[in-house]
Amino acid sequence: MTAPVITAVLAGLIIILQQLLMVAVGLHRARASIGVGFGEDQNLERKIRRHGNLAENAALFIATLALAEILGAPQRVVLGFGAAFLVARLFHALGMGSLSGSHLAEGGAVFKTMRTLGGFGTLLSGLALGAYLIYLVAGLWG
């Protein structure tokens, strides 16, 4: 059995991103004196969702990628899936960096585009990885 070292590096990068997004929420809460929820503060809501969306997607993707790596997926395949997911998550986080990206406010088309690319990139990399894992397991049963 091979240790999932590529997935471990991805997990390290993702948890750093997760913690940075968490700090952004905490600092905003402190400045705005909002303990729970987001009040009427759309910027806080945006930061909460940016952090939460990563949390909703990252753990399952990383676990699935680790399974593929453990089951013998070629390194280039694992790297490809991992890189696609990481880039998608960075695009999503950057896209949600503005109210135009999160709440579709006027202006900032680049933020809307980045969020869209990040969302679709996350979706496609997850679907492709899931299908690949099924393919990989089917080949082992051969």
- Principal-axes geometry comes out as elongated
Radius of gyration: 17 Å
Structural class: mainly alpha
Q: Please report the number of helical segments.
A: 5
Major sheet: size, sense and barrel closure? none
Q: Name the beta content range.
A: under 5%
Low-confidence stretches: none
The N- to C-terminal Cα distance equals: 19 Å
Element-level helix/strand string = HHHHH
Count the E strands: 0
Would you identify the CATH H-level superfamily?
A: Membrane associated eicosanoid/glutathione metabolism-like domain
Tell me, what is the CATH class? Mainly Alpha
Overall mean pLDDT: 94
Q: Would you summarize the structure shown here?
A:
This protein is mainly α and 142 residues long.
Question: What does this entry look like structurally?
Answer:
By secondary structure, the chain is an all-alpha fold. The chain has one domain: Four Helix Bundle (Hemerythrin (Met), subunit A). It has five helices and no strands. It has helices spanning 5-32, 42-70, 75-95, 99-102, 109-141. α2 runs antiparallel to α3 (75-95), α2 packs parallel to α5 (109-141) and α3 runs antiparallel to α5 (109-141). The longest helix has 33 residues, at 109-141. The protein is elongated and about 55 Å long.
